[in-house]
Amino acid sequence: MPGPTIYLLRVLHVVLGVCWVGAIVFIAAFLMPSIRASGPAGATIMRQLMQERRLPLWLMGAAVLTILSGLGLYWVDSAGFQSPWLASGPGRVFGLGAVMAIAAAGVGMSVNNPAGRRLAELAAPIQAERRAPTPEEAAQIAALQTRLNRATNLVAVLLLLATLAMAVARYVP
Asked: Are 165 and 97 in contact (CB under 8 A)?
């Protein structure tokens, strides 16, 4: 019978993973398109989410804890990354899911966080002065929004594929 550590790892992995994936899919499919469609008003919402609510920190925390708890579960199932289980169907599929989740976290931290920060820096003086962006600022904002949108969509796809891998891994021969 598994010990309490396994239960804790599994609860952390599943609950935080659900939060992480759900938040990213919501952001990619609904929030970002709505923010873009709302024009300058969207910047206020993004500032609230990013700076006041600290959404990037919550997402990063969920990502890191999901990945660490998943690695802990993988460690246990593979007897310390040593057993033949690693080459089995479940071992390979769980491993593939882990690689996709780690790649998603990497994109989020290396692309989304810097682009989001830069967008906030550009939007702050525009909002404070209650003015329209200059053509140069508008071009920078559009480029950053496009980069952020593409990266968020990639992260969402990677996380959905990782979730799919985790859901079916135990049943792969």
From this structure: yes
Which are the contacts of 44, defined by CB distance < 8 A and separation ≥ 6? 127
- Sign, CA dihedral 8-13-14-19, equals positive
User: What is the residue type of 124?
Assistant: A
Residue 1 pLDDT = 62
d(CA 162, CA 99): 8
* Residue among 127, 19, 131 nearest 66 (CA): 19
Scanning 78-112, the segments in alpha helix (DSSP H) are 89-107
Number of structural domains in the chain: 1
Please write the tens of the pLDDT for every residue from 120-137.
Answer: 888 888 888 988 889 999
Query: How confident is the model over 91-126, as pLDDT tens digits?
Result: 999 999 999 999 999 999 999 999 988 988 888 888
**Would you say the pTM of this structure is higher than 0.85?**
yes
Residues 6+ apart with CB under 8 A from 38: 45
Residue range of the domain that includes 44: 4-171
Residue 39 C-alpha from the chain's centroid: 24
